[in-house]
Amino acid sequence: MKIAIVIDLIDNKTNGSVITAIRFCEGLKARGHEVRMVAIGADGEHDCNVKERYVPVLTEVSAKNQIKFGKFDKEKIRKTFEGCDLVHFIFPFKLEKKCKELADEMGIPTTAAFHVQPENVSYNAHLNWFKPFNSLVYSYFRHTYYKRFKRIHCPSAFIAGQLAKHGYTQELYVISNGYDPAFVPAEEKPENKKFEIVMTGRLAPEKNQQVLIKAVALSKHAGDIHLTLLGNGPCKKKLVKLAERLGVDISFDFLKKEDLIKKLQASDLYVHAATVEIEAIAALEAIACGLVPVIADSKSSATPQFALDKRSLFEDNNEYSLAEKIDYWFDRPAERERMGRVYAESAKKYSLEHSLEKAERMFADEIMDANTSRPLEKGALAAART
Predict the structure, then answer these.
(1) CA distances (Å), origin 208, targets 132, 164, 276, 307
(2) Which end of the chain has fewer CB atoms < 10 Å from its terminal CB, N or C?
(3) What are residue 49's DSSP bridge partners?
């Protein structure tokens, strides 16, 4: 198939959705599809590199969370769309809305992904205390964008349930974003001077890293623990000050894939304290590397789906509950090693290959349903259905 993927930006490798989109594109290409990207920073032969669109106030706020907005260029994007079998959209912003109108005008089938969780918006706007706000954002997205599609990619059953709850009547395809197959357990784990706890994720309010710092300080083994927070974001200064005040041995970093794998393989425990998550590939990557996770049991997060039992869940936003789970796994190295192997095996059902197969089926369903006058290239549809 010839597939165009529209996402505002691909030039910021610290944004989880961007990393996921790039990995998805590369995976589709490896499976024989031609993929064209419309985005800030797109530089492939058939891609369309759009300019950044400035939005007063919003641009400055979004930049702190590694988001930029693409500017619609009808003629350039039309050339990229020409000959495509389908256009897939990642975000629900103005670039995507205008590109959806263009794809419809050109008679090209379309699908969309749901990657922007309203709870992320409310936390970063400091409106998480106002419960109706999230429902309003779900409704806004539905009325202004998603109602135009028949099929929506949902990275988790959790978010599919949220969409159904908020009146989305489209066909919802639950497809994990999939983790890179390079994330595997270490052949031989190194001996650490301290008990190494790690968490990966943007340093933002909804990721709740402050709860993890407080929990480490409360642990009966606090002096024997080293904590690493992997990520960038607006909360870094506050987290640094909190760790200093509580006397927590901590490091902050942002690692390339190869170094991230080595760090995860060498660690002893993975904690995911986020209150809001559509899926959390970061947690899945750690699990695939053989780390036992301890995950916030939040009603606004899909990540608890990865926990195999209650020993890997703690009460959301409760540092005392998390400290108890940290101490439990600290005191049981043999069980932690055994469960690490079990967890690594459990991650395989979320592999990128499985996700790409499901995405191909969604694309093929949309193409057939659209009944376009222009047929697929010979064998492309059959390949997508297998």
Answers:
(1) 21, 27, 9, 18
(2) C
(3) 39
Alpha-carbon dihedral of residues 67, 68, 74, 75, nearest 10 degrees? -110
- The reply to whether 256 and 267 lie within a common domain is yes
Q: CA 277 to CA 306: how far, in whole Å?
A: 12
Q: Which residues contact 30 (CB under 8 A, 6 or more apart)?
A: none
d(CA 76, CA 308): 48
**Is 188 domain-assigned?**
no
Query: Cα dihedral sign for 210, 215, 221, 222?
Result: positive
Full domain range(s) for residue 123: 2-178+351-385
Closest listed residue to residue 24, CA positions, set 14, 11, 35:
35
Q: What is the pLDDT of residue 208?
A: 96
- Tallying the residues shown for the chain, one arrives at 386
Q: Are residues 26 and 64 in the same domain?
A: yes
Q: Which residues of 87-99 are buried (b: 16+ CB within 10 A; e: fewer)?
A: bbbbbbbbbbbbb
How many CB atoms are closer than 10 A to CB 55?
A: 14
Instruction: Please tell me whether residue 86 adopts helix, strand or coil conformation.
Output: strand
User: What tens digit of pLDDT does each residue of 276-310 get?
Assistant: 999 989 999 999 999 999 999 999 999 999 999 99
Contact present, 173 and 193 (Cβ < 8 Å): no
Are 31 and 169 in a shared domain? yes
The residues pairing with 40 across neighbouring beta strands, listed in sequence order, are 9
Q: Measure the CA dihedral 110/116/119/125, to 10°.
A: -130
| 190 found inside a domain | no
Distance CA 152, CA 221 (A): 46
List the CATH number of the domain containing 144: 3.40.50.2000
- Summarize pLDDT for 127-145 with one digit per residue, the tens: 776 778 999 999 999 999 9
For 42-66, the pLDDT digits (tens) are 998 899 999 999 888 778 777 766 7
Cα separation, 185 vs 287, in Å, equals 9
pTM over 0.85: yes
Q: Are residues 254 and 327 in the same domain?
A: yes
Assigned domain for 214 exists:
yes
* CB-side neighbour CA atoms (13 Å) of 290: 19
Please give the structure tokens belonging to residue 115: 């990657």
252 and 160 share one domain = no
